[in-house]
Structures
1.
Amino acid sequence: MTRQTGTGAMKWRCLKQQVFFGVVRLSALILAAALGGLIFYIVINGFRVLSWDFLTLAPTDSMTKGGIMPAILGTLYLTLGAIGVALPLGVAAAVYLTEYAQQGKIVRAIRVGVNCLAGVPSVVFGLFGLGFFVVFLKFGSSILAGALTLGILILPTIIGAAEEALKGVPQTFREASLALGVSKWLTIWKIVLPNALPGILTGSILGIGRAAGETAPIMFTAAAFFTARLPGSIFDEVMALPYHVYVLATAGTHIEETRPIQYGTVLVLVALVLGIDLIAIIIRGYMRRKKRW
Amino acid sequence: MTRYQKEIVIKNVFFVFSLISILILGMIVVFLFREGMPIFREVSLRDFLFGMEWYPTYSPPSYGIWPLIVGSLIVTALSSLLAVPLGVLSAVYISEIAPTAIKEVLKTIIELLAGLPSVVLGFFGMVIAAPWLQETFDLPTGLNIVNASVILAVMAVPTISSISEDALYAVPGEFKEASYALGATKFETIARIIVPAALSGISTAVILGMARAIGETMVVLMVAGGAAAIPESIFDSVRPMPASIAAEMGEAPFRSGHYHALFATGIVLFLMTLAFNLIADYISQKFKETGSATL
């Protein structure tokens, strides 16, 4: 009798496990399906619009025809500017945190600061960019203001990635260099940073992807609905892919008419951002396998 | 300058750079307050936060952001109902159950989901989800709380999943082994040993995921419908704080009451997410696993 309840209980326990595993697998499947479905849908609808002209011409006939070249170019300028700002600052901060800092209150405060900065909503970065770069520093709505805003937005990403890369360099490398009488700074410059470079690059690429896809931070700091000519200086407004999607899909009188252009722009944006992310992920995987230490 | 002095200088230069995040946080506070505080000459803090009417362009205007706060809270709460189970369960699958190959693929998928531009998800919600909801449930509009919450959940899941997975991964192997040795099944080990041991990390993940959802702008701007009123059902439109800021800043005359009110809304939003982040940080520090012996 007891034996029977024993096997019964065992069966029950196994059944519970099966059900649980099923639920857990399902949740993973939902995520995969969500990404897959989304990409499939975007490709199917956007592919028809895609052509050489679409990528290389400016919009015409009050945005209902023509291409998206100025928006592609604008996104390029903004993201390159953003990474140009965030990379040196982020790597320098990470070098201090991993190489110099002693564990203590200040370092703790810096870490909380980085975490909190990472959690600031993108629209608040937009407000800050408007209040500081556009109004206070009088940059106006411009590539400069937008790039700086995006730069501080991706700063925590860069700091995090650089820290991880620096921590990944074995302690013995540093000790060997220091034992040869090399100064701390030269050890960092000649030994630690070169070995951490691939990891830092991967993080930067992910940062570029993030900056390229953001809309809210550039709405009030850089983006224009339409510019008659390409930007001539860093103080000009630009068109940008994410903002172009938003504006065409929500504002104006031709929302239905420009639907194909919207799909095309979404496809270009997604291909750009996910392409960048995927490159970073592949490089990272390759590095992990190839690592000599 | 001796070599030693040079080293000290270099160290201090790096120290200054490392302060930049705190410096920027401080400047965000300064400039939000500089542009936002003047609104409180027109309206009291109490009336601003709890005022039921958001009519910034009427004359006289009324600047009550309570409907916007409620909008933000509702979409965040509803989206976490979906995102928390999905995120935590997928993390359990990745860290405890999935074979290595599937694990790698899933981690990539989650990273790509995290990388999807929010405007693309918002666009998807407008063009696909909204018409479908409208037809299926016979609604006046498909741009509503449900739609925004589902799309927001997609944005919050990667955060919840990846941080939870780190926490699960960090649970010492001996815990599992001890549990198996006592005859527990894999499910029992996960449910009673691993998840409880990782609970502080999972809580951090959930809070950060919610912070992500409450601060997300483009999705609620494009999909939530934009009605600045207290909703009566989950199929009503709302106007969460980020949506209001993003939609109206372009039209608000420079340094008008409306402009200041939007910055003040930004302050509220900023303080809310800051609180979320500090709580998450506190939990992850306080319950930090320092080794198997501490439990």
2.
Amino acid sequence: MVGFSRFKASLTGIYEKTPIAIATLYLMPYQKLAHHAMFYILVDPRYRRKGIGRSMLKNLAHLAKTRFALEHIHCEVFSGSPLLFLLEKEGFTRFITQENYVKQDDKYLARTLWRKSLG
Amino acid sequence: MTNTLLAPFGGSRLDKKIHIREGVLEDKSYLVSWLKHPETLRWFPMCNDAEIEDAANYWISFANKGALLTAEYEGAVCGIINLYIQQEEKLKHHALLAIIVAEEMRGKGVGKALLQAIEERAKKLQIEILHLEVYDQNPAIYLYEKMGFIKFGEHAEFVRDKMRYVTKHCMQKIL
């Protein structure tokens, strides 16, 4: 995730001089796909439900549009993720559901892909 | 593990044998030459030699994981298929596949033979679900449907090629 920092495609949220969140654009390695990117956001569990994820998401979308001229961004979320509520609230739309994507202890979870146009 | 399969379609195609063997790193040169064909490259995300080289290196590396198969038609290499084996334990029960058949060898049952062979290989690797990605209007969609792959989603505007957008379809088959 932090590997993309060398492209200046990663943001770190700081609270009282301590990193508490990271949001990263996974820039696509091919020119024909360079108009969009997948992203990941991770917030320190001790700092959740304080608007940090929302702030990271907004800043990352701004970075995607202004620095990289991306037209849309997307992310994958496993069922039950706390990010689902935030994505809906921020205007993302679900466009792919892949059942049984994760298998852990013989239990399966779906993944959903969400996208937002930056136009 | 080697399979020899009769070409599965009717007519004169049945009198030729398609041989499926383990893929090896040396097959990369075929992969690169096929990808450089414009009519083939339009169905892949790469657009220049450097991107093709990077993609081919990654693709062929699955030979070291027993997840690359090569088709020969009358002794000539004509197609390659692989499984992108997942590294994460939680995701190892499924795999994305990629397939390519030399432009001049299409319509001879090579694609179907490769798909059948990789399905058997996937089962041996304990893979429960195969999935693939294919761009809109790619004629291979009909083969995938015929082989039991079902569409489960699409990514609109996935490719932008000379200001033309192309949708990517996601298909899967439960083994």
